[in-house]
């Protein structure tokens, strides 16, 4: 018998759940996210341990889900000073590094961009040789001015050695403190998207380091010997070392965890999950307990990448959404008081009317420290100029309309499917939604996120292009499968649980013999 | 004549993806290339074919290669200029205007970068009105205009000039060399007089692409349904709504042929569509019965966001809408059907126009 703890660090709250090995929730908590991150994690872990009475030694795995990197990128905060080297001249010079970046991000990250000779053709021939002097001259220009370096070579997915060589020279010139992000480890084919991923990854390495350290130190300080994981975009887990090296892969773990968590809590395999937070309601589609992925290349912080992300549609409705009345009509948001609910909202002696105020006044919500219900009702009537029941009906009607529109947007056909509510703001969702067969409010819905982190499997994937005129395609595919499999075992999967998610070979148009091979495996953690 | 600026390129690139009918390469790269050139050298003059002098020299400039290579080994930009200048020196005279060879896909926008840099106009016309997989599949061939001389250049500086005995030979030889060049290169081909362009090209296609792109992107910006806007503006027939249930690709000689199966939803619940492609979509059948075929345009649209989907990026499970659009009248002549109709791609079905296949009884 062993146990797991799932922790979710959001912008406002740090949640934790403690579950048995077969995923029964034994304890849960919601704590405030702290500035240093780690004391929030510490409080949350201590609390679930205390509530469940499970001995520390029996906690085998601790999983962390976090939107830390996403927020850093969206808010352009705490980003590393980076440099970028692209290997491939004379090819590719028509579209320089960061060409299609948002201007503000280019300003922050675009100070040291260099293109050097090198790169490979699809069949492994050189475009031009890599020149040590040229690379080192670029590195010297960045020296002392960057914290991490993104390295991207043409067809490095097929032959990564030039990227690796530049990484070695970077260590020589810039020292060990400067971390490198090699593109071949981050994305698929498509130079710009892969280069963008390497750049974002480099920019996030500082934040990731802080996050990983906070997690590791906290857990060690508390005396755990558990194995630690961090959730990534596709709903599977990676080790802390991987997370430190590839923080960009954690960027959409938030929605993924909540969608998977809501599915597992409600035991519903297919449906629509609506995760209501303080600022937005995020809708996603659950297909066989996994989030439906968007078919379009994902934009992260305004930057095009080739990661596949859960298909999430957001509307500006959350617990902290500001409500304004005018001429007996009301408007919801789209702005929110966010995490400052307890300073700004009417229910906490503030002067801003929020959605939470209405549900508090109507006995549908309890929050510690709020003022008397009658006092809230009075204040609402004063601001709206309406009788409370009229004002409440208007607000609920607006919520109903927005949520029904959201559900309609997410649906693939006219068939009615279940809607599963989760998140701290789930109280505001209507009990009946047009287009939904039913609305499910599962037990523990407020910690779906942390629970989602807990139930994740681990996975590993890789792809490459081979020339089948020179090698045997089947053999190459088997070799790729073996490599990916041993990577997965190394990361802690139990051997008999490994299953193949993707195993494909796609011939390339116009190129006789050239085939793209791709393998993705997943498996359960060792019991 | 009107000026094309960087914003217009966004619209043209979106429209080119529609006209790419699943092939032609993703215009994203071409768009960045064209925008960079316009930002550096200024806006491009788009002229109608009638504005050309009869003895003007017009040359289509194009990217040639495998779509997947083009997004990994990006262009240096020089290869297009070299192909252009080689053509001038081979013919011993200045080029007066460039034009796209195919308005569908990447090549719908690439020529803007050369027009900007060389400060010459771009003709609002092409040789397909869509995308096709082979160099000889252009309306110019229907008018006996030779593809040669063809000039070819890669990013490394390798150059070639071809004098071929037929337009098919042009495709074969350039294709073989392109592989040695690393799977992508730039070409200049079908050098033509102004008089020939007036007679043989598909006219107004750049403006048409721009109009389609504006319809989609403006509808999105104004929160209207972009798919409806596209259908209305393209006078398209909505063939099918469904979900991709299977995609298979197989090699057949030099080509990748594929089949995309779509399971019907909404109005098409209970039916299945089979969509065949050879880079471009060639044949659409519902439960075995053809509803659209080459040379008419078959367009696969992502139901989520009304973006056209290219064949190499079709993904299992995607919700899609399949549209059909009429091809240019030149393709609907007996010669046009012979050059780019179903028989050319190995089908036994006889060409029937989409408006007849989808006639309401």
TrEMBL record, chain A:
For this entry, the protein name equals Hydantoinase/oxoprolinase family protein
Q: Where is the Hydantoinase A/oxoprolinase domain?
A: 194-460
Q: Which InterPro entries match?
A: ATPase_NBD, Hydant_A_N, Hydantoinase_A, Oxoprolinase-like
What single Pfam family name could you report for this chain, choosing any that match?
Hydant_A_N
Q: Which PANTHER family match?
A: 5-OXOPROLINASE RELATED, HYDANTOINASE_OXOPROLINASE
Q: Name the Gene Ontology molecular function terms of this record.
A: hydrolase activity
Q: Which residues form the Hydantoinase/oxoprolinase N-terminal domain?
A: 4-173
Automatic annotation (TrEMBL), chain B:
Signal peptide (from-to): none
Q: Enumerate the Pfam families for this protein.
A: S-Me-THD_C (PF20906), S-Me-THD_N (PF06032)
The species is Psychroserpens burtonensis
Q: Which InterPro entries does the annotation name? A: S-Me-THD-like_C (IPR048350), S-Me-THD_C_sf (IPR024071), S-Me-THD_N (IPR010318), S-Me-THD_N_sf (IPR027479)
Q: Where is the S-Me-THD-like C-terminal domain?
A: 166-354
Domain S-Me-THD N-terminal: residue ranges: 7-163
**What name goes with this protein?**
DUF917 domain-containing protein
């Amino acid at each position: 018998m062993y146990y797991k703890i799932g922790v979710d660090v959001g912008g406002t709250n740090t949640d934790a759940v403690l579950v048995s090995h077969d995923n029964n929730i034994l304890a849960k908590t919601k704590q405030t996210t702290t500035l240093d991150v780690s004391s929030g994690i510490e409080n949350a872990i201590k609390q679930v341990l205390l509530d469940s009475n499970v001995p520390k030694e029996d906690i085998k795995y601790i999983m962390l889900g976090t939107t830390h990197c996403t927020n850093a990128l969206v808010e352009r905060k705490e980003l590393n000073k980076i440099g970028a080297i692209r290997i491939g001249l004379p090819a590719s010079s028509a579209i320089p590094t960061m060409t299609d970046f948002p201007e503000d991000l280019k300003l922050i990250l675009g100070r040291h961009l260099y293109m050097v000779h090198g790169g490979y053709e699809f069949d492994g021939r050189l475009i031009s040789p890599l020149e040590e002097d040229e690379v080192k001259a670029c590195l010297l220009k960045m020296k002392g001015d960057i914290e991490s370096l993104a390295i991207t070579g043409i067809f490095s997915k097929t032959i990564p050695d030039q990227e690796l060589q530049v990484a070695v020279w970077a260590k020589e010139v810039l020292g060990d403190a400067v971390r490198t992000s090699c593109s071949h480890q981050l994305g698929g084919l498509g130079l710009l998207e892969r280069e963008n991923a390497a750049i974002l990854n480099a920019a996030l390495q500082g934040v990731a380091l802080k996050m990983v350290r906070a997690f590791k130190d906290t857990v060690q300080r508390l005396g755990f010997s558990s194995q630690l994981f961090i959730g990534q975009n596709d709903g599977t887990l990676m080790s802390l070392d991987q997370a430190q090296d590839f923080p960009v892969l954690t960027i959409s773990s938030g929605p993924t965890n909540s969608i998977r968590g809501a599915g597992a809590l409600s035991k519903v395999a297919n449906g629509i999950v609506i995760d209501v937070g303080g600022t937005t309601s995020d809708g996603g589609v659950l297909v066989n307990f996994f989030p439906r992925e968007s078919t379009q290349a994902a934009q992260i912080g305004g930057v095009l990448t080739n990661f596949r992300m859960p298909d999430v549609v957001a509307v500006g409705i959350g617990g902290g959404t500001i409500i304004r009345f005018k001429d007996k009509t009301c408007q919801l948001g789209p702005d929110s008081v966010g995490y400052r609910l307890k300073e700004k909202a009417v229910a906490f002696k503030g002067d801003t009317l929020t959605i939470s105020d209405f549900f508090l006044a109507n006995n549908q919500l309890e929050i510690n420290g709020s003022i008397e219900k009658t006092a809230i009702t009075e204040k609402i009537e004063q601001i709206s100029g309406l009788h409370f029941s009229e004002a409440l009906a208007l607000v609920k009607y607006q919520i109903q309309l927005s949520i029904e529109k959201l559900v309609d947007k997410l649906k693939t056909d006219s068939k009615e499917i279940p809607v599963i509510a989760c998140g701290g703001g789930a109280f505001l969702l209507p009990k009946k939604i047009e287009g939904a067969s039913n609305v499910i409010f599962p037990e523990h819905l407020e910690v779906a996120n942390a629970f989602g982190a807990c139930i994740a499997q681990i996975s590993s994937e890789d792809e490459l292009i081979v020339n089948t005129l020179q090698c045997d395609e089947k053999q190459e595919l088997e070799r790729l499968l073996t490599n990916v499999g041993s990577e997965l075992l190394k990361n802690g999967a139990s051997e008999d649980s490994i299953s193949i998610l993707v195993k494909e070979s796609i011939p390339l148009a116009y190129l006789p013999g050239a085939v793209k091979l791709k393998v993705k495996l997943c498996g359960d953690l060792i019991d | 004549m009107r000026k094309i600026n960087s914003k217009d390129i966004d619209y043209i690139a979106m429209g080119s993806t529609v006209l790419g009918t699943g092939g032609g390469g993703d215009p994203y790269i071409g768009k960045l290339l064209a925008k960079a050139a316009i930002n550096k050298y200024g806006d491009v003059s788009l002229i109608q074919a009638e504005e050309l002098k009869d003895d003007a020299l017009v040359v289509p400039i194009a990217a040639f290669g495998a779509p997947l290579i083009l997004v990994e080994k990006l262009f240096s930009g020089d290869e297009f200029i070299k192909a252009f200048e080689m053509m001038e020196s081979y013919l011993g005279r200045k080029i007066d205007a460039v034009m796209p060879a195919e308005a569908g896909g990447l090549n719908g926008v690439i020529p803007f970068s050369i027009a900007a840099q060389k400060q010459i106009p771009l003709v609002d016309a092409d040789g397909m009105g869509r995308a096709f997989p082979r160099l000889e599949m252009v309306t110019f061939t229907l008018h006996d205009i030779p593809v040669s001389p063809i000039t070819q250049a890669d990013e490394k500086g390798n150059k070639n000039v071809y004098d071929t005995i037929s337009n098919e030979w042009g495709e074969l030889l350039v294709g073989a060399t392109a592989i040695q060049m690393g799977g992508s290169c730039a070409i200049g081909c079908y050098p033509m007089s102004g008089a020939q362009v007036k007679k043989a090209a598909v006219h107004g296609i750049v403006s048409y692409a721009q109009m389609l792109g504006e319809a989609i992107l403006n509808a999105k910006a104004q929160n209207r349904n972009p798919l409806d806007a596209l259908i209305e503006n393209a006078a398209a027939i909505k063939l099918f709504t469904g979900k991709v249930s299977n995609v298979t690709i197989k090699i057949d000689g030099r080509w990748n042929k594929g089949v995309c199966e779509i399971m019907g939803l909404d109005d098409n619940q209970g039916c299945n569509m089979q969509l065949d492609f050879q880079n471009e979509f060639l044949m659409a059948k519902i439960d075995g019965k053809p509803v659209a075929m080459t040379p008419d345009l078959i367009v696969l649209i992502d139901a989520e966001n009304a973006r056209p989907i290219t064949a190499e990026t079709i993904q299992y499970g995607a919700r899609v809408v399949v549209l059909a659009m009429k091809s240019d009248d030149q393709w609907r002549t007996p010669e046009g059907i012979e050059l780019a109709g179903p028989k050319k791609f190995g089908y036994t079905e006889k060409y029937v126009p989409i408006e007849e296949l989808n006639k309401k009884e």
